[in-house]
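Sanity check

After download, print the first record. It should look like this:
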Amino acid sequence: MFSADRATMHRDGDDLLTAGLGLAGLRSLAPPPFADPTAPTAAELRRRAIWSNWRGIADLAPGGGYGELYGSTATVPGREFSAFATVPGAHQPHRVLVQVPDAFDRKRRCLLVAPSSGSRGVYGAIAVAGAWGLPKGCAVAYTDKGTGTDYFDLDTRSGARADGTVGADAAGGLAFAPAASAGASGVAFKHAHSQDNPEADWGTHVHQAAAFALQALDRAFPADAPFTFDNTRIIAVGISNGGGAVLRAAEQDGDWLDAVVAGEPSVLVDGAGSRALYDYTTEAALLMPCALLTMENLPQPPLQAQARAGWIQRCASLRDAGVIEGADTDAQARDARARLHAQGWTDEALRAGALSVGFDLWRAVAITYASAYGRYGVGEHPCGYRWSMLAADGTPRAATAAERAAWWSDASGIPPGAGVGIVDEIAKVDPAAIRLHCLRDLWRGASADAERVRRGVAETRAGLPRAGLPVTVIHGVDDGLIPMAFTSAPYVAKARAAGRDVRFWQVRNAQHFDAFLGLPDYGARYLPMLPYVYAALDRTLAALEGEGAMPVDAVVQTVPRAGKPLTAEHLAMPAAR
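Expected structure tokens:
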């Protein structure tokens, strides 16, 4: 199951939680430098990956409350154990990594298992699980759940090794090495090109990470071995796609998990209101730019004045394609908004979804997931998309050695980002919308490709959590990327109808991305989600140790901070029972 095993020590200015950067270093706008940008060391890559993943998840801006009102960036010395893990039948491995603090409480035996959010690399949940568990003496196990930042350069046939450094495919030992024709060029990445549909196995990825963690604890503390599922308290925690992954782990057979905390989870179930990520993402990619023209007081960015021309263009192209109706732009925009309302979108989700429009997230997610769900390989995307480094004029170009070297530490797992862009060579009046129709038709069409993608989506459908397993679900009411109405709400309803032990925190004035709360307008409007995840973990662990009660249902009536420093009054944390 495990290969490419590594063990490293992290002390004396290079700790587990911040790689020696501390809160000030994590807040720095400049990433930790490489002495040689073309050949960074494994230690440099690790430090930069930790910096990048903290900044991609948490609101670290002054006034946002991190490290003062909630959260920790304490110095935590200890050891890391990492490996590649493989699901039976998979083409590609996923990364697993375990952080064992020197202060690990061997009598308490606390282990958190945390899959990355989004498509992030193996450190993608460090601000979620590491920040809570490591200072408390818990070990933390991570997995990239078959996604991650192991990008592969098709031009040089090179990719990331176990330590993150670049190596040649011919030498072996890469974290991801796709099959591709000799003439292939550009960039491949694991989520899109593994041909494994990793989301279907997210629960197994979490279980394998936990199993590896027990082995790591045996190695770290041989005198106290064995560490087993029976004698080690294990909590699975994740947000976003990581939240979906821990809910998939909750349904697995066996009494190996003690509790689950899922924040803003991407999860699909059978039941009224539940919608597949691919369905509502492709819908939003097409309709939301037009619909936003009817909405006042949108958060900035995107700056509506600059974006308006493109949104008007989108309305016209949708009308011409027969997707919406209306004699003028205002009527077209109203029709687009009404169609989204009819599908379950709230105005709160639409308003927060403006960020995903502005940063082109809807298209980026849809392109990647179409490839993943259909198990397409390099050069096989059903809508003709591919990925490459891009020149200033948008044309594909080869990557430099320095660019390749930084992918593992800097990328988010889904381009565009870290210099890698989406290649769409169709150039017409509204070029994005042309292939967006192709992406949408993969959900609702009758082609062989559409059937292939829908079959992949069906493989990701979640079941019920194990009877008796305590599960806490937390979701922002204003979430515009993974709307609560399509995901958490139907999941909770289905689980409760079956008599499962699920409790639900619905947080008002909270959207999906804590990291964007550093933008003044977002910080003024929205509250962070991480404090609620940490609080749910606090109460869950206390209850498991017989020192308190599990979280109870709550609709959290938060107070936007309107540009002021965050306080406990703004968070309005649910009272403990």
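If your output differs, re-run the checksum step. Summary of this record's structure: Residues 202-220 form the longest helix (19 residues).
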